[in-house]
Specification:
alpha+beta, 2 helices, 48% helix
């Protein structure tokens, strides 16, 4: 079933990120791309991705 409704900004962001993720298997490249795209989409000065480990602790995975 096809929709004639144009994708929202959020949908376009997710589609672009998914496309780039499929082009790379390098986690650091995926995170760097995600941070930059989120920053542009949200129109903010900085973004940060915080990665949680299975034990509950975490660290900054990438930021800009």
């Amino acid at each position: 079933m096809s929709s004639s409704i144009p994708p929202t900004g959020r949908d376009a962001l997710l589609a672009g990120m998914t496309s780039r993720i499929r082009q790379s298997l390098d986690l650091s490249q995926i995170l760097a791309t995600t941070v930059l795209e989120l920053r542009a989409f949200l129109q903010v000065d900085r973004t940060k991705v915080y990665r949680f480990e299975a034990e509950g602790n975490g660290h900054t995975a990438d930021s800009f």
